[in-house]
Design a protein that fits this description.
alpha/beta; Nucleotidyltransferase, domain 5; 5-stranded mixed beta sheet; 12 strands
């Protein structure tokens, strides 16, 4: 029997799912709108029937051995989604337990950045690494830590919230309720805010002056920078400087072999990697200098969130040490 | 046979050693001057003969099953002391290998803060915890992380250097070569520097104005604060504020159940715990608020460094997963 796993990525707008083999081939994928369901039970039923329809189409020599789910505020220990701010269903949602009961296989749930870290270890650039960090640069900044080959979950199941370390206690307002958190500077939203700050403070002409805040995105800033736009270039320099300074603090906590950058901002390549590495090195305790790789994630395709979620099951089966939900 | 372990704490001035049982009773202890030996081999021979003399005095129903060593810049993976700035012997010192060959038992080496963390887990207040941090407040600020019940060593064996995260990139000069590191503010030396800064900036009378920088110590500042000295009290408030702000960043990395404070500054009790907890909570990402305990270490006696070092052996034997040197 060829073993397969299900990967589910629950976003605020869409839920993507796929069925994946151990090598990372996605045999089948689909999505359902997350926002369409008023009640959580109805959402679960919709998801379960979509999955069941998918499983029926699989070749007869295959078997689904587990379900992995990545979701904001997903807790690995409890298998619950807890008070997610990006979903309309309030309170504690016992999703792993529901999937396990419905499909009779283990279900692992964690937040999307932790799923990305395990995905990097199972399918990506961290296959032979035991100590690394994945930084996801999307709407916010997520992080997942693998230490000694094991995903760092922490005591309450909420480790790896580096996006909410402090850049400036009197700085930009953050969705978490604080001010000056790293993700308000370093993320797709953060670099937009930086562009607008630079446009406000400086006199330089810039093609970005023609674009509204709501329409502006990382790709536009990247392309403008590559065309020589000074404001766009300065926005990357500023973003990389702050990321590098804060990575220097993360490094002395867990001493990783490498830090992987994932997401749209990371796809800007040298524009973001160069200032990040420069300022990380400059701010590192000398003992660590020249030792820490900063690398692009290998998981940059559309299926990355599905692969990350599905990897939780392979990791669980590889280790066989934790109790499945 | 009753099993015993040797614990050795190598300080810049003195090396303390002891022979310890699993319950943490120190059966025998002594020390040799670290500075007396020009050559590292002579130091090792002196240490080995002192230990041999100690072992000969042990009851006949006992057996030494391993040697644990805590030393600045001790690397758990290699068993070497690497370029320690507080010792006169330069380069890489293969101490664990030498002890293993000399005594025919496993030898574990790590830095003193990591040894303190394992000591807290084996003998102290973290006996039932799997995720916690120990912050050692001595001349500098050391830190040891236990995650999922395992000491966090990192890829290069140098994890846990929280003393060298940044408070202010243009701040106080640090021994590591950077400026504004946490330990320049929060440590026995840090609070002295703060007292002198406050005496320089303010006009308040203070009994600390009569004491030279070289003579001032944490105990004097503590006693002055308890007597109502405003400068001493403000120094504790300032130190706790900075420690609390930075602990809020450490917490979101590894999500510990508790943070233990160890050392002279921690013995100031409420004077340091109160501002630390207050400012940690105020700066924490809301998701973590009210969840993280800040507690005194149970290892506050003279033998603590010996116990910490010896605990490395018990931890190794308990786990039996790593290769002994």
């Amino acid at each position: 029997m060829r073993e397969l796993t299900v990967g589910i990525d629950i976003g605020g707008t869409n839920t993507k799912y796929g069925i994946v083999d151990r090598a990372g081939n996605v045999l089948l994928q689909g999505n359902i709108p997350t926002t369409q369901y008023e009640e959580f039970q109805d959402y679960f039923d919709g998801m379960a029937s979509a999955l069941r329809a998918g499983i029926e189409k699989l070749p007869s020599d295959t078997k689904v051995v587990g379900i992995g789910v990545g979701a904001a505020n997903g807790n690995y220990y409890t298998g619950n989604i807890e008070r997610a701010t990006n979903l309309k269903w309030k309170g504690v949602l016992p999703l792993a337990k529901m999937f396990k009961e419905e499909f009779g296989v283990p279900c692992m749930l964690t937040n999307d950045a932790n799923a990305a870290a395990v995905g990097e270890m199972i399918y990506g650039n961290a296959k032979n690494m035991k100590d690394f960090v994945v930084i996801t640069l999307g709407t916010g900044l997520g992080s997942g830590f693998v230490c000694g080959g094991v995903l760092l979950n922490g005591h309450h199941g909420i480790a790896g919230e580096v996006g909410h370390t402090s850049v400036n206690p009197a700085g930009r307002y953050c969705n978490c309720g604080k001010r000056g958190c790293l993700e308000t500077y370093v993320s797709a939203t953060g670099i937009k805010r930086t562009v607008y700050k630079l446009l406000a403070d400086h006199l330089e002409p810039s093609e970005l002056r023609e674009i509204s805040f709501d329409n502006l995105n990382t790709k536009m800033i990247t392309e403008a920078a590559l065309r020589g736009d000074i404001v766009a270039q300065e926005a990357f320099e500023y973003t990389g400087r702050i990321l590098g300074m804060k990575l220097a603090e993360t490094v002395v906590h867990t001493d990783p072999e490498a830090i992987f950058l994932f997401g749209g901002l990371a796809q800007a390549g040298e524009l973001i990697f160069k200032p990040t590495i420069k300022h990380m090195e400059a701010n590192l305790m000398p003992l660590f200098r020249g030792k820490i790789k900063v690398l692009p994630s290998a998981m940059q395709n559309q299926a990355a969130p599905i692969l990350g979620a599905s990897s939780l099951v392979w990791d669980f089966l590889d280790k066989q040490v934790m109790v499945a939900h």
